[in-house]
Amino acid sequence: MQAAITLLLLCAGLAVGRPAVQAVGPCTKLSSSTTKWDVVDFGYSATSDSSAGSKANATTTDGSGGTIRFRLANAAVEYKANCSAQSADGPDFFDGKREYACSVPVQGDKATFTFSRQTGRLHIKQMWRCAKEFTGFQAEGGIALNLTCGEGGQRRTSSPLRRQTAVSKILCDNSPLSVPIENLSAFA
């Protein structure tokens, strides 16, 4: 794959009138050989606060939500993207369909992710540029996480005039992990 990307960049550099040598610098070489991301400080939490109504099977959900956070490291760039999202779409909160943006410190670079709590699949997309070399890269990949989760709950009982409320919280953490890049393309 690295040879194909290097050839593409050499041709692109010539097509726009730049010397080919300039198109293949250290950032481009490192980017074209990047095979994974490192995900650090991954955390998922969910809180469900359900109140039992007057009917035995009626349940309303108030104050429920899920949060995901992690830092994304790519050996080809000098920064870590900060990725986080919140959702109130229960019961799993993250269905893998909505794309969330990560915060990156370099203007023009971009990182996004999707996460499915049900399958544990984390999917990442990233675009970065080698500005001094007039090249850029787009990468996409993912992994099914094997999360270690703990569930805690407490029951609060209120006066007879108020409803009984059950609160449960799920916390998941994962040690640092590698996410394979499944598709890498270059642009000039």
From TrEMBL:
Its main location: secreted. One of its GO terms (molecular function) is methyltransferase activity. The keyword Signal applies. GO terms for biological process: methylation. One of its GO terms (cellular component) is extracellular region. Transmembrane segments: none annotated. This is Ribosomal RNA adenine methylase transferase. Residues 59-155 form the AA1-like domain. Keywords: Disulfide bond, Methyltransferase, Secreted, Signal, Transferase. It is found in: Secreted. Pfam families: AltA1 (PF16541). Residues 1-23 form the signal peptide.
